[in-house]
Write the structure tokens for this entry.
Amino acid sequence: MNGKRVLLIVGGGIAAYKACELVRTLRKAGASVRCVLTAGGAQFITAMTLAALSEQPVHTNLFDLKDEAEMGHIQLSREADLVVVCPATADLLARMAAGIADDLATTLLLATDKPVLVVPAMNVRMWGHAATRRNVMQLRADGVSVMEPDEGPMACGEFGPGRLPEVDAIAAEISNHFTNGHRLAGKHVIVTAGPTHEPIDPVRYIANRSSGKQGFAIAGALAALGARVSLIAGPVALPTPAGVRRIDVETAREMAATVEAALPADAAVMVAAVADWRAEAATIKIKKQAGALPTLSLTENPDILAGLAHHPQRPGLLIGFAAETNDVLEHAIAKRQRKGCDWIVANDVSGDVMGGDANTIHIISANRTESWDRLPKDEVARKLAEKIADALQ
Ligand code: CTP
């Protein structure tokens, strides 16, 4: 972290005392730290403590003329490489998610164009409340990284998720941001994920089985390496990964049009399980009639991956997925050639992979096949993002 500049916003809550330890740890690792203490934070620790540990003035008040004269709030964030909010209370998360700027901390957070890492700590029920869930999801959609709190006994006597993670884990997250966070900076990657739904009538549809988990994890892993990610998602109920721009679609044709509109891109990763066929959808619900079966007349959907392969704005690196139940490698190799993509990521879905959390995959390119055995989907995503970064560099 040598020479890196961290702007640390310390919110209220008993975990504020750990922010002092974080300042020491970051400085020991070579970073410089400037602190902003909220009014809530100042109920638990003093500006003097933070000033002594950071060896920098501590800012507390938006309207403090001395602060503004010496260093305006815009300047404060301009001079940072990363803004860290630790601890972040439920109230601070809510104000951030709503774009409220009613004190120095929130004004600074609204004005900054620097990456923001939020480390929440609060009572287990506040963390689990629908409003906090919604705010965290909104912040992640806005590109803010939100660390998951630890689980354990809490200062309030309850037990569960909500504790501030260990200081070393927070420092590791910050260090990881500095070492890996730029590998894909300036690159745009399109990711498709989830199934598509092809309506039969207003209540029925044709779909492929897909949880969307692998595609969402890949989108998140690419964003963590600094890529600008457009995640084009079929109907799934998954939270948007940090730093990812998500566009929800329903049908294959909507997905194809949205992919097209997102071009140009440096790479595209087509993880979606696109329905191969669509039916001519009835505008009103088809009623069941005794003895008579409805006939579905199917039309083939556009092949989005093959379309991209022949597009004038073909992404430099085009990656397809192949979920196969038998002769996995053979089918996947043929599919790579047929679709005209650079790599095919093949997985065997004959077991319990669908909707599960682990995956054994083979990455097939023109001249080699690499296999990763039974990895969690997050790990597959991380390794694939690294491999994409290697290829784009
Ligand atoms: N794909 C796509 N558009 C489609 C169908 C598939 O973009 N209409 C993409 C998928 O996102 C995936 C790859 O193509 O990256 C392979 O998908 P798959 O369903 O395995 O291919 P199919 O051509 O449908 O082959 P199969 O005969 O095995 O169903």
The longest helix spans residues 377-392.
